[in-house]
What we know:
- The protein is an alpha+beta fold and about 550 residues long.
- Helices cover about 25% and strands about 25% of the residues.
- The protein contains 13 helices and 26 strands.
- The chain has helices at about 195-200, 335-340, 375-380, 385-400, 405-415, 415-430, 435-440, 445-455, 465-475, 480-490, 495-510, 515-520, 525-535; strands at about 10-15, 20-25, 40-45, 55-60, 65-70, 75-80, 80-85, 95-105, 115-120, 125-130, 135, 145-150, 150-155, 160-165, 175, 180-185, 190-195, 210-215, 245-250, 265, 270-280, 285-290, 295-300, 305-310, 315-320, 350-355.
- The strands form six sheets. It has a six-stranded antiparallel β-sheet with strand order 5-6-7-8-11-12, with no helix packed on it.
- β20 and β21 (about 270-280) form a beta hairpin.
- The protein is globular, with a radius of gyration of 24 Å.
- The protein starts with 8 loop residues before the first strand and ends in a 6-residue tail after the last helix.
Amino acid sequence: ASEPLVADPVDIAFDESGRMFVVEITGFNQTDKTKTHSRVQVLEDTNGDGRMDRGTTLAEDLDYAQGLLPMKGGVLVTTNSAILFLRDSDGDGKADLKEVLFECTKSINIDRQMGSPRRGIDNAIYINLGLGKKDITPPGAPGRKLELANNNLRYDPATGEISASSGAGQFGNTFDDWGRQFFSMNRNPVLHAVLPHRFLKRNPPAFLTGGDEDAAPAGGEGKVYPLKIFRTTATVHAGTFTAACGIGAYRGDLLGDDYVDNLFVCEPTGELVSRWIPEPSGASVKARRAQPGREFLASDDEWFRPVNTTTGPDGALYVVDMYRRFIDGDRFFPPDYRAANEMGAGSDRGRIYRVVPKGGAASPARTPLPREAAKRVALLDHPNGWHRDTAQRLLVESRDSSVVPALEALLNNSGSAKARLHALWTIVGLGRLEPKHVRTALADAAPGVVENGLWLAARFLRSDDSIRKRVLALAADKNLRLRFAGLLVAGDLDGPETTRALIQAGVRDAEDRWMRTAILSSPATQSGQLLAALVNEPAFR
Length: 541
């Protein structure tokens, strides 16, 4: 897609019909900050030639919208002052339902607001904090205000509950096939949410504050390789990530297995998109460059400004390009420079690219997902993560419990670990989770399924003896990530078994930062016993 059909696009998403929804900020870098300059469009390729040729404006005059996500027949949209739900219920292409889900603190600068809404494997929606402190308040309910600082937002669309989640991303948020969350900040291309937020608050005397870490080199170590020297407003940022954003985990089936779960990060100042491969590193992960010293995509066109990436229904990788002269905020330029230059140059332009293997088809026909529940269950086994995610969402939103037996069959018998994982969380989303489902997940051959089973095992630790024993056993598993998750969950229990698991972890894994965090997060009621035991361990003398 390109101008004049699209202008200053910053985020895209596809609904269950395969339609592309686009958020545009046509007021980016405009001098008049009092006007609203955003809209949401729906783009379609009506003749199948691979080019979008029809655009319908779903909503306009929005307060600097910059993120969206399909849900409940419409889209959730993040703006500078609110999180909205928009839906066209009469089929005329215009949103006749505009509901304010939450009001939020406005940011002075639009690059510091909340955004990048993405759905997690757990059926919740995660939204980046942006920068600074934010207050999130349901309309007319000041008593339910959530104050956020250095944390992202978790929103459960089924219950309306909001809570903090680990990390504080700026612009860019994604999940891989196993539910691991990654996000970006200007100088930090790949941040990983290692520790679920609730464990940070479980033991207040431990003063645990951060659940995320850099998975890729950041700051001055975050080198980039543009085709030409690029200009930055901070000279110390030259040659490094200065506007990292739009991170996306590729989860399609078109580019080949070597690309699955690779992380793509945009650097619009350098006119490039980098590619990273995450690998296990202790209880966390580290990301390495797919090609050292070389970017996945780069241009010598100074107006090329990639800002987002995602996987489409066709399995292709999509890159969103604002395509404009200036990408830095106008506040970073001297007044005389602003006066002499059109800072909004390019506000009438924009491109969206579809990346496919060489010789690939221009574009497949848009095929809506089936309405039959059984066919949607079958899609949980699809090789393209977009199909699995969308099928799970639709099944959960339907509240149709008649599909639970089919989901249980998938959980118990599917040859695909990813299908088993989606079946598990779809059962959770339908409110039908039972101990037997957790026991099945904890016994799975795939570590990614077991880890997710551990997060769910916390619900049954005190009521199911077999789950409790399995969790304690996994706290000593040979897989360090499973030991980490098992130890965190086991920490919900008081008693000698948990204390022994904590001591064992302290002796075995004390050099791993996140294992130390898992030990410290255990309830303060165990602190005395743990300290007394550790001082008698030879390794700590």
